Amino acid sequence: MKVIVGIGNYGKRYVGTRHNVGFDVVDEVGRRHDGRINKRRFLSLTGTVQVGNEQVVLVKPRTYVNETGQAVRQVLDWFKLSADALLVVCDDVHLELGCGRARRSGSSGGHKGLKSVAARLGTEEFARLRLGIGAPECDEVSRVDYVLGRFTASDRRRIDEVIVQAAEAVDVWVHQGIEACMNGFNSIGREDSSGACY
Q1: Would 135 be classed as within a structural domain?
Q2: Of 11, 41, 57, 67, which has the highest C-beta tally within 10 A?
Q3: How far from 140 is each of 35, 94, 97, 136, CA to CA, in Å?
Q4: What is the pLDDT of residue 139?
């Protein structure tokens, strides 16, 4: 069994915001595998899908982003799973729009959702997929306002493409592990061989 957690803020007012691309990826994984994410448990909306021979629990926490770890802890405890069975999907303002990065572990990079998960699990040793949403173009826009804002029409088209690619990367992680996922997903959005968008 595997667990995929999307990070985002719960509620209609946050639908389509930059901070909720993790939710968007989980929704896409559910769509690809004919799953519904509508059961309320573990402080989350959850659903279960079959990805090949693997049962996968899809999780969209109903907490705010900075309390994501509460939901993740409950899910792993209930199913008696370790952090090895977990993949967390989130936005990243430090990556250019449309870039993707998968990692087997690491620091939160300032992302409060990842920080919460690490604190609740007592480890940073869990896989994560980050989707680049870019950063504010001017200092007058605060980081909070930016991540809680919505994409422009052209940026939305681009991030929708990346969401589909990220869902494909999730399938790779389920079947082949984080190394294979990194090999495929980390090339997304690279502008040249130097990996400029990283």
Answers
A1: yes
A2: 57
A3: 41, 18, 19, 9
A4: 66
Q: Which domain holds residue 147?
A: 2-185
Residue 150 lies in a domain: yes
Catalytic residue among 19, 33, 94, 175: 19
pLDDT digits (tens, 9 = 90+) for 27-82: 999 999 999 999 999 999 999 999 989 999 999 999 989 999 999 999 999 999 99
CATH code (residue 80): 3.40.50.1470
* CA angle (84, 87, 88) in 5-degree steps: 135
Is 19 tagged catalytic? yes
Q: Is residue 8 part of a domain?
A: yes
Q: What is the pTM of this model?
A: 0.90
| Neighbour-count burial for 77-96, b at 16+ CB within 10 Å, e otherwise | eeeeeebebbbbbbbbbebb
**182: enclosing H helix or E strand:** helix 178-185
